[in-house]
Amino acid sequence: MSDKYLELANSKFGGSLLSALGLPKPVVLMRESADRPHRLSGDVLCGSSTGAAFSENINTTLASTDIKLVSADSADKCNLIFDASGICSAEQTVELYDFFHQNLAKLGRCGRVVVIGHKPSALQDADHATLQRGLVGFVKSVAKEIGRKGATANLLYVDRGGDSAIAAPLRFLLSAGCAFTNGQLLTATAPVTEVDLQADWQRPLEGKLVVVTGAARGIGLAISQVLARDGAKVIGVDVAQSQSQLNAAMASVDGVALALDITAQDAPQTLIDCCLQHADKLHGIVHNAGITRDKMLSRMTEQQWQLLMQVNLGSVQKINRALLATEMLDNGGRIVGIASTSGIAGNVGQTNYGFSKSAVIGMVESMAQQCADRGITVNAVAPGFIETQMTAAIPFATRHIGRRLSSLGQGGLPVDVAEVIAFYLSPQAVGVNSNILRVCGQNLVGA
Ligand code: NAI
Predict the structure, then answer these.
(1) CATH-assigned architecture of domain 24-188
(2) Residue 130: how many CB atoms within 10 A of its CB?
(3) CA–CA separation, 350 vs 303, rounded Å?
(4) Residue among 328, 320, 322 at smallest CA distance from 380
(5) What's the pLDDT score for residue 447?
(6) Is the pTM of this model over 0.85?
(7) Does the domain at residues 209-439 carry the CATH identifier 3.40.50.300?
(8) Is the Cβ atom of 239 under 6 angstroms away from ligand 1?
(9) Atom of ligand 1 nearest to the CA of 384
(10) Residue 353 appears among annotated catalytic residues
(11) Are the C-beta atoms of 311 and 263 separated by less than 8 Å?
(12) Distance 323 CA to ligand 1 centre (A)
């Protein structure tokens, strides 16, 4: 479904009209190019607080890209990185103020702001932890100020031992793949397996087998396309009723179509058997299949409740259990869930959906640590308003308002969710565990 307001705002006549009326003009976001993905270029201006801890990691990361480091004098239309990890007193916050006060205007259209800090719980000193927590409110506020430029601001917290794992999250937050991920907090933790910084950043998933459920259309199709672009062999799963759509989808990515209802009793075993036909190891599973059965709770039937719970939650747990009973995911595997901002903020008529999506967050929080011991990461995305058949069914006025509620003034595209998932799945993101990134353009709902 096209966004007519976004088209109008980006036309010559429409742009002038909206300016004259004082109405917001959302920017067409810059996204990854299909033929040269993950290419990081342009200028970056870096700053740091006194006592900052991660300058060396930042420099090493940037040195592996085509990014040019510029000085404040020559900076123009650049990205901004600030290492705020040394800030440990109210007085010292002026260093953060100075850097952004002087340089925020130099941020380019669709530019990137990344602030780096210590994860507060990783610090012994209460004052230091207090100040590091303040970065969340700062970054979210910056994100709201710069959203009209199509730019994003995100915070990267570094946990104990996470400094060796900064490269992948920092690269992601600077990339075009981060187009609709705004005002978010990502944590780099101690890597569960060794970080391979020599790995291929362009085709990080070369030759790796990944399962995507609900792959016939919408977000699942976009995930399959992006993972295939990154080199993965995709096994796409969807219900038999969608078989022809699924076949076409998998043919387009040279993947494997598996017609399977994930709620079927034997679904976990069928899935495992299918994987074993193609490889001994499974690199990752993306639990994307999901349904809505919206109704006010007093009118919701038990069948609507139960069916949704089986698809969005029960089957995900059963498949995880079956996979973890094998060693297919050990030493480098990835489990990715799809939550929703409805699971964070709740939504009218979505008690069942909100429960299931909140439970996906619970799954990440509860499984991440135990899986880390086996070298497996568990993360999720929480999409907001994404342009799919699901959101096209929302009544016109609500849909229109829903789009404008984000700092970027528009809905996201399925590819925006897919890019975050591709980042989670990349072997370099080995220190990215137990994260829930909202892909919502900093929508007011659940922001
Ligand atoms: P969609 O309805 O377009 O696609 C879902 C796919 O899952 C369909 O192809 C469907 O046939 C498949 N599926 C459903 N039940 C299945 C089952 N039992 N076994 C196998 N496959 C099954 O949905 P969309 O919009 O692409 O959403 C994908 C995921 O993202 C879902 O988990 C959804 O809850 C979540 N999400 C979507 C948002 C949006 O704005 N579109 C916002 C937040 C979360």
Answers:
(1) 3-Layer(aba) Sandwich (3.40)
(2) 14
(3) 14
(4) 320
(5) 60
(6) yes
(7) no
(8) yes
(9) 42
(10) yes
(11) yes
(12) 22
Long-range contacts of 134-141 (CB under 8 A, 24+ apart): 134/93, 135/84, 135/87, 135/96, 136/185, 138/96, 139/113, 139/115, 139/183, 139/185, 140/183, 140/442, 140/447
Q: Which of 332, 362, 213, 338 is nearest to 275 (CA)?
A: 213
- 167 CB-contact burial (10 Å; exposed 0-12 / middle 13-18 / buried 19+): buried
pLDDT in tens, 403-440: 889 999 999 999 999 999 999 999 999 999 999 999 99
Domain segments of the chain as ranges: 24-188, 209-439
Confidence of residue 21 (pLDDT cuts 50, 70, 90): confident
Does any ligand 1 atom lie closer than 6 A to the CB of residue 390?
yes
CA distances from 349 to 115, 278, 289, 290, 300 (A): 37, 42, 20, 16, 9
Report which ligand 1 atom has the smallest distance to the Cα of 216.
Answer: 9
- Strands 152-158 and 209-213, by their bridges, are unpaired
Summarised one tens digit per residue, pLDDT across range 203-245 is: 999 999 999 999 999 999 999 999 999 999 999 999 999 999 9
The tokens describing 53, both together, are 């801890």
Which tokens belong to 376? 């497996």
**Cα separation, 434 vs 380, whole angstroms:** 8
**First and final C-alpha spacing in the chain:** 24
Q: Which two tokens stand for residue 52?
A: 């900052």
Residue 220 alpha carbon to ligand 1 centre in Å:
7
Tokens representing residue 91 in the block:
């007085």
CA of 252 to the centre of ligand 1 (A): 19
Query: How do strand 284-287 and strand 334-338 relate by DSSP bridges?
Result: parallel
Same topology for domains 24-188 and 209-439, yes or no?
yes
Q: Are strands 256-259 and 284-287 parallel, antiparallel or unpaired?
A: unpaired
Q: How far is CA 301 from the centre of its chain?
A: 33
Distance from chain centroid for Cα 325: 28
Altogether, the residues listed in the chain come to a count of: 447
